[in-house]
From TrEMBL:
Membrane topology category: Multi-pass membrane protein
The protein's name in its UniProt record: TonB-dependent receptor
Protein's organism: Pontibacter diazotrophicus
Family designation: Belongs to the TonB-dependent receptor family.
Segments passing through the bilayer: none
Keywords, sorted A to Z: Cell outer membrane, Membrane, Receptor, Signal, TonB box, Transmembrane, Transmembrane beta strand, Transport
PROSITE patterns found in the cross-reference section: TONB_DEPENDENT_REC_3 (PS52016)
InterPro entries the UniProt entry points to: Beta-barrel_TonB, Beta-barrel_TonB_sf, CarboxyPept-like_regulatory, Plug_dom, Plug_dom_sf, TonB-dep_rcpt-like
Record-annotated TonB-dependent receptor plug domain positions: 125-227
GO cellular component: cell outer membrane
Single GO biological process annotation from the record: siderophore transmembrane transport
Domain of life: Bacteria
Length: 739
């Protein structure tokens, strides 16, 4: 498909780069290791920080004390290892592929505070980054990406409508479409996958999640506006040899997951990850005649391979997914033809195929210099029905990046330069209208990093892309990190983002209503500037570690595709922004270990999000101005027992009018409400049993479906969802692991 569209020399260059990618072998030569307690070397140290000396690049040890670093990130052959309550150590790793590091316990408060702070907010990266670890993921209900943010304050997950089961994330007060979602730093689950994309990635596939606020690095493209969510999939060389997870809840939803990892010879390793879930029970707790949750069945597979030999490491993977969903009235019969159907229902059937390859070669004797490449291919096809509307789509995408990294003079000045090529072919049909587009975007990028090895890191980057439909795109970005003290960090971020919207796929909630869909003009790409910063302070109080972080981000759009549900309750209108549109986001969070094994996280968030609708600047609907978050976590020694409790408060949200009063911008407000989730886990040698509950206070949005008694009438609207629908859900499950 790509070769059929090489209409100019830039396309030939990009194609040659893509072929080069596949002829190389993989992502980066690695240094592996394990951190243990020197007093008992059989005891791993979990959560120790391991960083290349002179850089801010590093990682944390996993549940077995193991870690992996990419050698091309090094500027010297030394690593620094730190952990709370232990003396830091600097290790020479020249010529080594594996190191075992025993750390000695220390009673020095200075070392506890400065060197060993364990926190979910990274002290290493120049960006404002938060890490959701595999341990954090196990605190939530199973088993997909949508449920992975329940114990995190930075990302919100909301239900888009009361019928179809689609969900979306929000960051900095903006819809998830403005957040770049990547897997292993490869853009994924974008475009037409948006409505259900959070269901397409099983939580059991995930090693960790990095949440980055702000536009981030130019290496990952131009689409990020509010931030990036990077999902790190399990590494074949590090994952459990066997992992099994089964789950069931009080709504009769069942999940089953099996991961199998093994080494194939001394150079290859692989992991096969399987997931399935099923909900076949029709539940209507609020007695409005509609199912509270859509029925569905998903089959999901991902196979990842890794090759390591000297300076070359290769990683590639393939994935396949099939999902069916049914929502609507209790009596809806999916076997009845649509034109004869007396009951309202939604149906969707999705087939998805993905493949990727990551490649890099590290120059012998130059750990700071490497050349690497990343490619990916995606096929996504769906057929969907929303009442009397049909919405079908197909997306075929390919991307390629070639990256060279080296230094300028000395290791305090490094840079990354490269070429990229993105291809997207979209075809969509909405009832009787067919539309689509083909995007071909070759580009080039350069990122410079200054690091004084003491307290200042500056990352300045820019990229130029040549869009076949919208011309030249220039994307500058800047991230600055300044360590005022060893415990106090300031960060500044500024940059521009650019994206081409998929208005129907990103607003499928509007299809679950009687509103007419109207495009008032030809839509232009969305462009926005993001400026913000953060303050992080690590401290010790009563001998216990804590972290305080606060951040503020301002996003302003120079153009935006406006989905207007304010102006007319009978229509949703799409048009280009004419006026202002912005988001102001403030967050303050405190993390503190109150007692040994007892951690507290508390956060407050404030959003001011406004958009111009038909000439009037008003609050964007269904975004709370105030939100509070509290998470309590307790674990006994050796994690034999674990317990977590998360409570969230949602303030008033503006809502679009559902009645035609004759007055423009006739608005109303939601209720204030709380939600509470809890889970208790009991661990054995290889087994874990967990029991929990979601929405334990049993709060439910009153009347989530307007006009439920007449779904084919002119007042039907299931898109105004701002709170929980299903009420209290109790669940249980078990995990089995063989390392």
């Amino acid at each position: 498909m790509l070769l059929n569209n090489l209409s100019n020399p830039l396309h030939y260059i990009a194609a040659i780069a893509a072929l080069f990618i596949f002829t190389l072998s993989a992502s980066a030569q690695e240094l592996k290791g394990k951190v243990v307690d020197s007093a008992n070397t059989s005891d791993p140290i979990i959560g120790a920080n391991v960083v290349w000396k002179g850089t801010s690049i590093g990682t944390a040890t996993d549940a077995t004390g193991s870690f992996v670093l990419q050698k091309q990130d090094a500027i010297s052959p030394e690593i620094i290892v730190t952990y709370i309550g232990y003396t830091p150590d600097t290790i020479q790793v020249a010529g080594k592929d594996f190191v075992s590091i025993p750390l000695a316990a220390s009673g020095s408060l200075k070392e506890v505070v400065v060197e060993g702070q364990q926190t979910r907010y990274s002290s290493l990266t120049p960006t404002n980054s938060q890490i959701i670890t595999s341990r954090d993921l196990e605190k939530s209900a199973c088993c997909n990406l949508a449920e992975s943010f329940e114990t995190n304050a930075s990302v919100e997950v909301s239900t888009t409508d009361a019928v179809s089961g689609a969900k979306q994330i929000q960051m900095l007060g903006l819809d998830g479409s403005y957040t770049l979602l990547t897997t292993d730093n490869i853009p994924a689950l974008r475009g037409l996958a948006t409505p259900y994309r959070l269901n397409y990635l099983s939580g059991t596939y995930i090693q960790s999640i990095d949440i980055i606020k702000g536009t981030g690095s130019v290496l990952n493209g131009y689409e990020s506006i509010s931030g990036q969510v990077n999902v790190m999939l399990k590494d074949p060389a590090k994952a459990e040899r066997l992992f099994v997870n089964v789950y069931g809840n009080s709504l009769a939803r069942f999940d089953a997951n099996v991961n199998v990892a093994t080494e194939v010879g001394d150079k290859w390793s692989t992991i096969l990850m399987l997931h399935t879930d099923h909900l076949g029970n029709r539940v209507d707790r609020n007695k409005d005649g509609f199912m509270d949750l859509s029925l569905g069945t998903q089959y999901n597979m991902f196979n990842k391979w890794k090759y390591e030999h000297k300076a070359v490491v290769s990683e590639f993977g393939v994935g396949a997914l099939r999902e069916t969903r049914i929502g609507g009235q209790l009596e809806y019969d999916e076997n009845t033809p649509q034109e004869q159907q007396p009951h309202y229902g939604t149906e969707s059937e999705t087939d998805r195929l993905t493949a990727y390859n990551k490649t890099s070669y590290t120059f012998p004797g130059k750990p700071y210099q490497s050349i690497g490449a990343i490619t990916s291919l995606t096929h996504h096809k769906f057929d969907a029905q929303y009442g009397l509307r049909n919405y079908d789509g197909e997306q075929n995408s390919g991307s390629a990046r070639l990256i060279f990294q080296s230094i300028i003079g000395h290791t305090g000045h490094t840079y990354k330069a490269g070429l990229s090529y993105n291809y997207d072919s979209y075809t969509e049909t909405l009832t009787d209208s067919t539309f689509g587009r083909t995007e071909r975007v070759p580009g080039a990028f350069l990122e410079y990093v200054y690091n004084n090895s003491n307290n200042l890191t500056i990352v300045a980057g820019s990229r130029v892309d040549f869009h076949n439909l919208f011309g030249t795109i220039f994307t500058p970005r800047l991230n600055v990190k300044f360590d005022a003290t060893k415990n106090t960090i300031f960060r500044l971020a500024a940059g521009k983002g650019f994206r081409v919207a998929n208005p129907v796929a990103e607003n499928t909630a509007a299809l679950v209503s009687s509103r007419a869909i109207e495009f008032r003009e030809e839509l232009q790409p969305e462009e926005a500037w993001n400026l913000g910063g953060s303050f992080t302070h690590y401290f010790a109080l009563g001998g216990r570690p804590g972290t305080f972080i606060t951040d503020y981000y301002y996003t302003t759009f120079t153009n935006q595709v406006v989905a207007d549900m304010y102006t007319d309750p009978k229509r949703v209108m799409f048009y280009n922004l004419s006026g202002r549109s912005f988001s102001k986001s403030f967050q303050a969070e405190l993390q503190y270990e109150v007692l040994k094994g007892f951690d507290v996280k508390a956060a407050y968030k404030y959003f001011d999000v406004k958009t111009t609708y038909s000439g009037q600047l008003v609050q964007k609907p269904m975004i709370p101005e105030h939100r509070f978050f509290v998470n309590l976590g307790f674990a006994t020694p050796f994690d034999k027992w674990r317990a977590d409790l998360t409570t969230q408060y949602f303030g008033l949200m503006p809502l679009a009018s559902i009645e035609d009063s004759g007055a423009a911008m006739n608005m109303r407000e939601s209720d204030r409400f709380f939600t509470t989730n809890a889970q208790v886990t009991r661990a054995f040698k290889r087994w874990e049993v967990y029991v929990g509950g979601e929405n334990l206070l049993n709060y439910r949005q009153p009347n989530p479906i307007v006009g439920a008694s007449d779904p084919f009438g002119s007042n039907f609207d299931a898109s105004m969802v701002w709170g929980p629908i299903t009420g209290r859900v109790i669940y249980a499950g078990l995990r089995f692991k063989i390392d």
